[in-house]
Fold this sequence. Notes:
alpha/beta; 5 helices; 41% helix; single chain; 5 strands; D-Maltodextrin-Binding Protein, domain 2
Amino acid sequence: xxxxxVLAALLALxxxxxxxxxxxxxxxxxxxxxxxxxxxxxxxxxxGSSDVLARLLAEPLSQSLxxxxxxxxxxxAGSRLGIEIAAKSAPDGYTLLLADMPHTIIPxxxxxxxxxxxxxxxxxxxxx
Length: 128
């Protein structure tokens, strides 16, 4: 099965959102993308269902883009730690976040949040 249908099916099944730090479109258009490995932050523990899903998504995505996808599990604080790392990453398109609902509600229910969901750009969702 080609990589794109596999990726679409996995995202539709999971109903999760893959987001990236906002990347200036002009900067990405000027260079060949990607020219080095991409990091996918998973804000949950290694070995859990989100980690397994990220690894399943990484393989066809890596084949499609021609670049390695590195899974970086950053569990803690109900996914807040991983989300903050992704939100603070350089806006160059080389950091992805496998996220679900917490990235939208954490700023409303926790004090001193260092990100806002608007600092993330949704690049794919389960509604494909």
